[in-house]
Specification:
This protein has 15 helices and ten strands. The protein is α/β, with parallel strands linked by helices and 319 residues long. The strands form two sheets. The chain has an eight-stranded mixed β-sheet with strand order 1-2-4-3-5-6-9-10. It has a two-stranded antiparallel sheet with strand order 7-8. A hairpin with a 4-residue loop joins strand 1 and strand 2.
Length: 319
């Protein structure tokens, strides 16, 4: 397993890689890095695959463009196309977690010739809604339900990253704690915030690291986000309405390649993304695997590496 930099058309991307054989790209989410896939990189390499996990645009050792609109879904998919080409590959499987799942689903949706199979972790495929941009819809739903603001709505603010940048270690520790499957009921985040209360403020100050997160591993995250900041990662969220505007050509499109989906039973993201799980087969006719991992939370590839690895390898073996 090694880390190196790859020059693509538009970025210098830092990747974690191991193995030789068919290429599998592993796309991380927020607030993560390529290192969140170490267990999968190792298992895939041993099984005869070339596993590559990039630090995504705006994260870690990869370039961080200053323009907010440079973090649209089309840019993110394009980065994976560029990376596969730079690695000398014409076909690959793409696996994504959290925001990376949205990228992976759109890779398969737009370039099935290149991304010949797809697996999403924690975030199901969410088709483009025809009635208007998503941020207004999220705000309206939250208001009707009296739940407070969804944190994604708060992330739209120009200065939303400032609270995270002020104390990256505390922000990361609280987020990993509040979305973990081992965190007791009542201490997990629901994703909804009372007026005047930020995401990190909504999580207890005595939040502990999850059982799977060692201090040295956590220090790697803290070092990366202390150096690179949270502005670019939150720009992914600030492009939600831009994504909607740019993807009208994908309205009603379906994912036609073989697919798999895994989610933790106790993943708080299911409160606001879960309803799409039941309808996934309507949008992904060749959905071959759909698993709910009992007791697991949001960080499933790190919480439950053996189960995730086994499911991925079974899925890849059946292609």
């Amino acid at each position: 397993m090694r880390t190196r930099h790859v020059q693509t058309d538009r970025l210098t991307q830092q990747i974690l890689e191991s193995g030789s054989g068919p290429l599998v790209l592993l796309v991380h989410g927020f607030p993560e890095l390529s290192i969140s896939w170490r267990a999968q990189v190792d298992a895939l390499a041993v099984a005869g695959f070339r596993a590559v996990a990039p630090d995504m645009r705006g994260y870690g050792g990869t370039d961080k463009p200053a323009d907010r609109d440079s973090y649209s879904i089309l840019h993110l998919v394009g980065d994976m196309v560029d990376l596969a080409r730079a690695l000398g590959e014409e076909r690959c499987v793409v696996v994504g977690h959290d925001w990376g799942a949205a990228v992976a689903w759109h890779c398969a949706l737009t370039r099935p010739d290149l991304f010949t199979a797809v697996a999403g972790l924690s975030v199901p495929f969410q088709p483009r809604r025809p009635k208007g941009p998503p941020t207004a819809a999220m705000a309206a739903v939250s208001k009707r339900a009296g739940l407070g603001d969804l944190y994604i709505s708060r992330f739209q603010a120009d200065d939303a990253h400032a609270a995270f940048d002020a104390d990256p270690a505390t922000a990361l520790r609280k987020m990993f704690h509040a979305y973990d499957g081992a965190t007791p009921v009542g201490r997990q985040s629901t994703g909804f915030l009372p007026e005047g209360v930020g995401l990190t403020e909504s999580i207890a100050d005595d939040a502990a690291l999850p059982p799977w997160m060692s201090e040295p591993h956590f220090d790697e995250y803290v070092a990366a986000f202390s150096a690179g900041g949270f502005r670019a990662p939150l720009d992914w969220y600030r492009c939600l309405d831009l994504n909607w505007a740019q993807t009208a050509f994908l309205q009603d499109a379906r994912i036609r390649v073989p697919a798999a989906f895994m989610v933790g039973e106790r993943d708080p993201v299911r409160y606001y993304a879960g309803p799409h799980e039941a309808a996934m087969r309507d949008w992904i006719p060749d959905l071959r695997v759909q698993r709910v991992l009992p007791g697991a939370g949001h960080w499933i590839q790190q919480e439950r590496p053996d189960e995730v690895n086994r499911t991925l390898l079974e899925f890849l073996g059946g292609l």
